[in-house]
Amino acid sequence: MTGRPPTDAQPPLLIACALGIERFALRRGGGGGAAGEAGPRVVTLRTGMGPQAAERALAEALRKGSVTERSPVIASGFCAGLAPGMRPGDVVVAEATRGHHAAAPETPCRDNGPLLRALRERGLTVHSGLLCGSDHVVRGAERAELHAAGAVAVDMESAATLGAARAAGRRPVAAVRVVVDAPEHELVRIGTVRGGISAFRVLRSVLPVFHEWHRSLLLPWR
Q1: Across-strand partners of 155?
Q2: Of 51, 79, 191, 218, which has the fewest Cβ atoms less than 10 A away?
Q3: How does pLDDT run across 145-177, given as a tens digit for each residue?
Q4: What's phi and psi for 36, nearest 5 deg?
């Protein structure tokens, strides 16, 4: 037989972000296909700030049935770049995420190849590597220490989101973040507004790439 797989073979994609402005950007970036339309459904979840809030929000979404046990999960939104030369509007695609505790395990993102290719084909500057977690805003010397430990970027929710998603079942996970500040462009400096606008525009533009990634994960069922 040919054609689309049955509906129950198309788990909805969950995109988790912390802030209202991030959710606004991700929802304004394009439609994800509502129930009954071509393509699987997309759920955009605002978790609130911090790792604990992210874990609670994801657990609640799974408990309520907003997404299924096989739903792919993308942690998205803004982040702080750690590598010299990074600029607001650059994109970070995690090879793995690691929580903010000293002995926190890493969550690998093994299905991120299509995301990397699609984002680069759009002409975006894309960095890949370890995305580490924090429970506070990271600046100055601490930023340099995290980079020296192997991380390319930091945010407060991605590691907690993907760790909770994997703990709840086997599923594809990814983290795609847009740099809003970087070593030479910290939020406290002049130019913050311009950098924030650049990051917002890029975040709004990446949603179609998430849809493409989601569809690519469904190919084995076709």
Answers
A1: 133
A2: 191
A3: 999 999 999 999 999 999 999 988 889 999 999
A4: 95, -15
